[in-house]
Specification:
- The structure is a homotetramer of 337-residue chains.
- The C terminus of chain A is likely disordered.
- Chain A has 337 residues and is α+β, with helices and mostly antiparallel strands.
- The first copy, chain A, has 7 helices and 18 strands.
Chain lengths: 337, 337, 337, 337
């Protein structure tokens, strides 16, 4: 197995964790119902044009913002920084890089900086949010999956290695990665990057991009995942269950993927591991099916091909083509016997 | 929805529950490993030619017998009767019916009667077994799925309505059933039959038969199903996980299906309901996908087509053909996007 | 260990299971809140004087009736019989015994017979109820403990052996029992009696009686018990959690006991075992602490001393006094260290 | 509620997390059995004088070291630092403070520094350990509680405020705290301190000290806690279950406390929350019973009074006496009814 050439760098400013995602949706009521009744998020504030939601344990005002729109795109993904000083340091850092970084006044957020990464992903760095009550112990309000907090994003990008460079410079470390053997060359297909001490704050895999493949919330317990699937069935969201339950090889998480009413994909998961110590990243061959699912059940093709575009981002195709890893096996299973 | 024409009859003798299944396997060690380490059964006795297993809560000597053989068939399925009187009543009853019923001396079992039902399924009626310790509270010996007890069988038969007649006369009641609309005729496709007060001791669905589609053990908890899948992955049994986890519409059970090293299929499930009161059976249209899985995930084709033959039984094809219900949807999902 | 002298008798009529309990409560709204939000029962019907509730999987109209009253007593406990014929057979049977048995017109119930057992417990035998939708798969309506169905009653009586005689004659079998050594005599302290094939439909233990010690509902999963405790804490019902979670030695059930707003005690439990086969009952020495809790945590004294009186029943003290089994150990633990 | 006067300081070196605890035990085999079969830890190495154990997800060589001894004491608790540079920075820092800090050669550990904190607790700072396989996905080896990783320590000290000062200077933040009203003065009774982004790496509460009250491992799932209690009962460890299961108000964790064969206390818990953002610490009145257990069940007295001494540490009594918070309520419950 090839070892990735990771540099652990002193970051120019302190990113602490994945923070919030802003989605355009076409029907606020339909999306609100999906995220409160199935996912179990709590509404912090709402008006005719937006709904602000947080997980049951979250004290920050929102980790998901739904905005009424005519298109189903992702507006931006957010990263939390330690404090306001980090925002100003970030501004200086990006200026040195020749990037346009703009301070923005964002409802319910403290000092916020907007910038695009080197493949065009719109990012928001934010130092604080209005506090709201942690609902962690308000068990009478648990619904559906009882999602606790936003954990990470996964994006498709046309060049994983290049994208990784941007985040490595910000102090993101690689927990795991996948590679593919292309004419005797090791080709990096995916990187799992983290700041907060578990396997991922942001993940990049190869594909037409940049696109948001999914964002992920943690659940308190495996049973909450089963309850989520059961509530999905009862509420008519069975067609929204795209994949799982299953067990990822990478990260070790028990997972389920749902598509929201606009097709945005959300992962609900629990039980991954602590990744705080400096240690070599764990590599996986893309051809190893246990990478994706230890239980042996392959993803549907659309899990690999469909994703959410970012508003105003231009889609780029990967130069080196790697076929989605599970189509053949899936069809073989379907046609077997 | 058509209502099934059920007769609740005073039974000629008292069948109390599904009791035990006897399987021919080609490699006793391989099968023993599968059933103890993954399923969690306990070995009651074994020798070079057979392994006798029971679930963790079972006091009877065995609910599963593995016999060394050159072929992977099912020898018979067993039903428990209340006491020895019931064996003699059964003998008289089958004699009146013109059926050959033979008293047999079976290791570790009390008085046992052998007979074939009206579609050729080899049955054993048994009034008692040697007792063994209930391992229910020996939690340190729980392994894999921690299977508690045998619950039911599912068989494919060429004529469901005819087969049902045999069991209705023995006092089996219908909890649920499926039908298909064939040229404006209601065609009975499956019946869920019970004696012990939950949805099923024996189930018949239409197909080339008689064949044993699966036998099923209960698990104590939903988490034990997730643990079973995880242990399967860890022990190299991921290819044996054929279907699930999912939630049946019929019976409401949370289920997973595994294939053992010889391809015999076992269902691991929990949480179904009590069916004691006299009440109309619940009917399902075969075309309703929620019948099979409330979460919307279809079975693979082989789940419908593959099953275990009974030793010396002749296979009969159904006269009225009904296509397996989920192929198209499954392929559509596979090819989607 | 002494073996109990059980007779398995052909019953004069067919009792199939524990059916329903009728409680007098002083504040209908307070009780309704407790049983719907914490226990998770569903309201089938209600008016100013009564609330009728059922478990999530129950098809019968009610398993719990709350009646507005000035006193907190139990009106009666109910048993289901197979069909109307059994009601008439029961009427004849009790008449032969010289007992007053009265046919009654009870809302939402089919043909119903009222009688008192030989220690004065008011019983209702009922052959049917109005059907209601099984909510089993309506997971979006699961609340608190998500109680599935009524399972059994436990009563204190002054003479366990005498009371047992009444129920043995009706075909109830003993699954487990407790005895105490009193001056070299084996004294029967408790019997666990069943008709439906699990360890209990009705349990009698020694104490001033007759009194209803508790009634019990099954939960789908261990997690639902933890959720129940958490919801109790969140809704202000923490003082109502009297005992548990713990694991009974007898029956092997995972249990929790709550007191409702009037002090009526409800057990929430899951995972016990099948008791269908004829087998010797399992005996426990009252002095064995693992009988009560395998985890070693004793009950509070009030768990042994407090219970609900039946309306118009006269309380009788046991002739042979046996001290509640856990007081000393409990205090020892409290004062230890 | 009084707000604690927290300073978030730039730390002189980078402590990343609680790392390992070293215990003296009198019978290595007895302790090994307890920690592998009940807690579920994995043995990394062992010889006649010591056993090195790690949790199922841990990659570092050990988080628990058992050393054969004639006394049941705690040798030291360990903290992980980011890298070797941090060890040297720590050495300099403590030298400036006038503290004796010694580099030590510790088996299976990288560069290690030994020092005592300002109340005499023996600490080891360590920059790396020999790697071992993460057993996270080796589910066939899960046993008992299936403990995943060491999470935190709780210590009794005679002066909480003074002790806190030492750790605040190292960059530890307060997530929650308890205070008591003593003659109109707010007296700090406990602080929950963290470096790794959840509620605690080390906790200090008031009592004769310094003593190790407990160390805590995380479990993957609530069900693993129930399984732990069940396995404890089956293996004869029921008397070792000292408290729980219950739900802490502070941290929101589902908890159980066991005493090992030498009386060292271990907490097994799951589901607490993320504490990364800068936010005011959460204060609790010591008199509020929901602080300790949301379900309302008080701890036994010995939970408050018994703890493990550190080798060669001198015990100091608190100057300001605060009675253990739950004795009265516990006895009231015991004597009630």
């Amino acid at each position: 197995m090839p070892q990735i050439d990771e540099l652990v760098l002193e970051p120019p400013f302190n990113v602490t964790r994945a923070s919030h995602v802003v989605l355009n949706v076409r029907d606020l009521n339909a999306s609100r119902h999906f995220y409160t009744e199935l996912v179990g998020l709590v509404v912090s504030d709402e008006d005719d044009s937006a709904v602000y939601l947080r997980g049951l344990e979250e004290r920050g005002h929102h980790s998901l913002v739904l905005r009424k729109s005519s298109e189903a795109t992702c507006v931006c993904i957010g990263m939390r920084v330690r404090n306001e000083d980090d925002i100003y340091k970030a501004q200086d850092y990006f200026a040195e890089q020749g990037k346009t970084a703009t301070l923005a006044d964002v409802p319910y957020q403290g000092l916020t900086l907007r910038v695009r990464d080197n493949v065009g992903v719109p990012l928001e760095f934010c130092a604080s949010m209005e506090p709201r009550e942690r609902m962690l112990k308000q068990y009478q309000h648990y619904r559906g999956a009882s999602a606790q907090r936003l954990d990470h994003y996964q994006l498709q990008v046309s060049d994983v290695r290049q994208t990784w460079g941007f985040y490595q410079a910000l102090g993101f470390r690689v927990s795991e990665y996948t590679y593919s053997n292309i004419s005797e060359m090791q080709h990096l297909w995916g990187v799992w990057l983290q700041r907060k001490g578990n396997p991922h704050d942001i993940v990049f895999t190869q594909g037409p991009g940049p696109r948001l493949h999914h964002f992920a919330y943690t659940l308190p317990d495996s049973n909450d995942m089963i309850r989520a699937c059961d509530v999905a069935g009862a509420l008519g969201y069975a067609p929204s269950l795209e994949r799982g339950p299953g067990r990822h090889g990478i990260s070790g998480a028990l997972f389920t993927y749902f598509r929201d009413p606009d097709g945005h994909r959300i992962e609900l998961f629990n039980t991954h591991y602590q990744h705080i110590d400096l240690e070599p990243a764990l590599g996986w061959d893309l051809a190893d099916p246990k990478r994706a699912d230890q239980w042996g059940l392959p993803a549907q093709n659309k899990w690999f091909t469909e994703a959410t575009s970012f508003t105003d981002s231009v889609l780029t195709q990967p130069e080196i083509r790697v076929d989605p890893p599970t189509l053949e096996r899936f069809l073989a299973l379907a046609n077997d016997g």
